[in-house]
């Protein structure tokens, strides 16, 4: 069955997932929905998976649910049935540390604590997202909360883990003769589901995408969510350029659109009051009803497939994909309609704006030193054998 608009074809199924035994993974926003199903399949294929979530109780409940799959005696399902058992034994799930992605300082603490107990990180999936029902500021920095949660915190998390990711790549090279460390950023379809002003790239790049955030203009709901997802695409593009060829640095980063998913993020909307003005209008109610129907949306287990493709599929390494934008499932796509998504000048402006915000919020000029020096670090610590000097 084909789910969603556009007649997506599948270039990937769970049958193509590789043996992940001995690998360590982090999935942010993994207490429910796509994040939880992504974590489940990683564990069912042998990985040691860490759930990076804000709410400790929800993370623990998700870990128990995933553990029930690991303990199941049922045959493994290639359709992603949560009740099926593991394909490769030895996987584990951990929810021993919470992280509030609305506060970038919490990301620093999370990374420091994780590295104390783990000497490798093979897969990092930046999945967490939020659709704020009203204008809300993050804790640090005090900018729009979706931007802080899904973009700035993930950027800092990648920075904090970059040395560990690259040291893991070197370990893989020693163990297997090749390295394959992956970062996956979960975005959305930035070529559609956007308001009309996205058709004017200059207006979006200078005014809506960055200036409105810097000036703390009140954006919320789908507008805030989609703006953040454009940032995800732009950030991935810039990071891939800085990292260079994965054959040299061992780390590959790609961004994905999971598809239209029926998850909690679109199921409900809270309101500051009960006035008529605060209630969703007819258009929003129709959109939410469509998102929650099987006519245009797919269930979370299928919604995890594209993240799993980018994180695990052998094809991604074989074709040396870096900085690609994947639509369901395993289909390469460039943001043709939303031209800002492939605008290098806007990507550079976003990078500079984001690094300033992270330095100020953490009070540390070296807050993103690993990303700032990624070129030098890569050259110094290449995973490829170095030629002998005469």
Can you walk through the features of this model?
This protein has 390 residues and is an alpha/beta fold. It has a single domain (19-374), classed as 3-Layer(aba) Sandwich (Rossmann fold), CATH 3.40.50. The protein contains 15 helices and 8 strands. The chain has helices spanning 33-44, 56-71, 104-117, 145-176, 201-208, 211-214, 221-243, 246-249, 282-291, 300-303, 305-312, 314-318, 344-362, 369-372, 374-380; strands at 24-28, 48-52, 92-94, 123-126, 181-186, 251-256, 325-327, 331-332. The protein has an 8-stranded mixed β-sheet with strand order 3-2-1-4-5-6-7-8, with helices on both faces. β1, α1 and β2 form a beta-alpha-beta unit. The longest helix has 32 residues, at 145-176. The radius of gyration is 20 Å and the shape is globular. The model is unreliable at 1-6, 193-205, 265-287 and 386-390 (pLDDT under 50).
Please describe the topology of this protein.
Layout: E1 24-28, H1 33-44, E2 48-52, H2 56-71, E3 92-94, H3 104-117, E4 123-126, H4 145-176, E5 181-186, H5 201-208, H6 211-214, H7 221-243, H8 246-249, E6 251-256, H9 282-291, H10 300-303, H11 305-312, H12 314-318, E7 325-327, E8 331-332, H13 344-362, H14 369-372, H15 374-380
CATH superfamily descriptor:
NAD(P)-binding Rossmann-like Domain
Could you tell me the CATH topology label: Rossmann fold
Tally of strands: 8
Domain module count: 1
The residue ranges in which pLDDT falls below 50 over 5 or more consecutive positions are 1-6, 193-205, 265-287, 386-390
H/E series: EHEHEHEHEHHHHEHHHHEEHHH
How much is the average pLDDT? 82
The end-to-end span amounts to 61 Å
Q: If strands are numbered along the chain, what order do they take across the biggest sheet?
A: 3-2-1-4-5-6-7-8
Main structural class: alpha/beta
- What percentage of the residues does DSSP assign to strands (E)? 5-15%
Tally of helical segments: 15
Query: What's the CATH first level?
Result: Alpha Beta
Shape: globular
| Biggest β-sheet description | 8 strands, mixed
Q: Portion of residues in helices? A: 40-55%
Rg over CA atoms: 20 Å
What's the architecture in CATH terms? 3-Layer(aba) Sandwich
Protein name: NAD(P)-binding protein
GO molecular function: oxidoreductase activity
Biased composition (Basic and acidic residues): 71-84
Keywords: Oxidoreductase
């Amino acid at each position: 069955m084909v789910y969603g608009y556009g007649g997506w074809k599948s270039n990937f199924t769970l049958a193509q997932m590789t043996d992940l035994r001995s690998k360590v993974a982090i999935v942010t926003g993994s207490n429910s929905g796509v994040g939880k199903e992504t974590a489940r399949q990683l564990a069912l294929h042998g990985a040691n998976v860490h759930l990076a979530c804000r709410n400790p109780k929800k993370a623990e409940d998700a870990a128990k649910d995933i553990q029930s799959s690991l303990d199941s005696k049922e045959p493994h399902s290639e359709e992603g049935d949560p009740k099926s058992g593991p394909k490769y034994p030895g996987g584990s799930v951990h929810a021993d540390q919470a992280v509030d992605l609305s506060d970038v300082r919490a990301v620093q603490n999370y990374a420091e604590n994780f590295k104390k107990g783990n000497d490798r990180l093979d897969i990092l999936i930046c999945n967490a997202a939020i659709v704020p029902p009203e204008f809300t500021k993050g804790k640090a920095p005090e900018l729009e909360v979706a931007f802080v949660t899904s973009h700035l915190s993930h950027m800092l998390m990648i920075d904090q883990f970059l040395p560990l990711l690259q040291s893991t790549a070197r370990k893989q090279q020693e163990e297997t003769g090749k390295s394959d460390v992956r970062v996956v950023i979960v975005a959305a379809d930035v070529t559609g589901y956007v308001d009309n002003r996205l058709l004017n790239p200059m207006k979006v790049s200078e005014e809506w995408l960055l200036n409105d955030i810097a000036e703390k203009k009140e954006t919320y709901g789908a507008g805030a969510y989609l703006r953040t997802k454009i940032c995800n695409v732009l950030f991935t593009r810039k990071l891939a350029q800085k990292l260079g060829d994965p054959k040299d640095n061992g780390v590959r980063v790609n961004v994905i659109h999971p598809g239209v998913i029926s998850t909690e993020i679109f199921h409900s909307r809270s309101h500051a009051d009960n006035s008529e003005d605060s209630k969703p209008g007819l258009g929003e109610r129709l959109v939410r009803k469509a998102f929650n129907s099987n006519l245009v949306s797919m269930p979370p287990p299928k919604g995890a497939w594209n993240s799993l493709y980018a994180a695990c599929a052998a094809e991604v390494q074989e074709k040396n994909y870096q900085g690609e934008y994947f639509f369901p499932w395993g289909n390469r796509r460039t943001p043709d309609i939303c031209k800002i998504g492939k605008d290098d000048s806007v990507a550079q402006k976003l990078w500079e704006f984001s690094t300033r915000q992270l330095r100020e919020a953490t009070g540390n000029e070296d807050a993103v030193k690993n990303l700032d020096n990624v070129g030098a670090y890569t050259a110094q610590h290449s995973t490829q054998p170095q030629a002998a000097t005469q």
